[in-house]
Amino acid sequence: MNPSPQLVPMLKQLRLSGICDSLERHNREAINQKLAYTEFLALLLQDEVARREHKNFASRHRRACFRGEKTIENFDFDHTPTTNRELIKDLATGSYIRDKANVLIVGPCGTGKSHVAQALGHCALRQGHEVLFATQSKLLNQLNAARGVGSYEKRLAHLTQVDLLIIDDFGLKPLEPKHAEDLHDIIAERYENRPTIVTSNLDLTEWGEAFPNRILGAATLDRLRHDAHRIVLDGKSYRLPRPFSGLQNTPLKPVDK
Prior knowledge:
The structure is a single chain. Helices cover 51% and strands 9% of the residues. The protein has helices spanning 4-13, 17-33, 37-64, 85-91, 95-99, 113-126, 136-148, 152-161, 177-190, 214-225; strands spanning 103-106, 131-135, 164-168, 196-200, 229-232. The mean pLDDT is 88. It has 10 helices and 5 strands, in the order αααααβαβααβαβαβ. The radius of gyration is 25 Å and the shape is elongated. Strand 3, helix 9 and strand 4 form a beta-alpha-beta unit. It is an alpha/beta fold.
């Protein structure tokens, strides 16, 4: 007697659909290989665990709001030969998350700062952490918009409690007074509790210039820089312009007046 027709509805009721998908295959495998009942059960449960892990990862990846699929594996270290690749690979293990230490990534435009930040975030996702990626402007604008609809506290709580927060393009635009206060609150709440990754085109010595209030800026940066790992990227920009095909050698025609 084939028990599958009776098992499938019960498995679905228990939300074990991963087992449903492989039940027939593993049943035949167990019969052919004369597996013990516990071995058969282990095969079924492995499929369910794998399905749930894949589903959870996909959900975390969606909530992270990454821009593209930037990973350590597809980062071109040869393009920036002076980069401390050993430090980046060590951070990829999640050591800074365990230590609750920030990571500050600086360098000129187009040298891969956002790529490295998102790659570290992707590693954190694989390790089971919740991650959120956003530019400075988007992050603070959304927080300010939440203030207008009465959900500021909820949004702020999410930003301060997410396992890893990645703030891209810090200092690209000067901070407005209210935004500077919000950023300080985020960094202060995360300080020594949860790590934050920040990327910037500015040299670390110039970060204070982004704040309209120097005292507030100093207080924020003091917490952000404390025991932080620092990655400096240098070299030519990845974003090279595409040549004008067929136009570079074409003489301009005079314009009739």
